[in-house]
Amino acid sequence: MRGENLVARTKSFAYECVKFSETLPHSYFGNHVKGQLIRCATSVAANYRATRLAQTTAGFISKLSIVVEESDECEFWLDFLLLFKFGNDDNIKDLLKEAHELTSIFIASRKTAQRNKV
User: pTM, whole model, 2 decimals?
Assistant: First the structure.
């Protein structure tokens, strides 16, 4: 997948996670998960965008590692929401699928960058 497409895809993912988070109940747990999901989903988009400006391969790999961690954290929170039956299961499953696909893409990209590092 081309970098420009991933910029748009991560931004869309962040938007959908924020939009979904707003539907969570206003309870202690709901607010906690809402904040965590918003933070990690927007971090995926912002940090992936930053990888595009990396000045070195090492800088690219470092930023991409953050993106991997944050997209994996999104998977955790979405999976946790499914466990507790918080929100629309279909929406959560769609977001979880996208988080997993993004994590897989970023892990593969990081492996490629590490292999090609001079």
Answer: 0.92
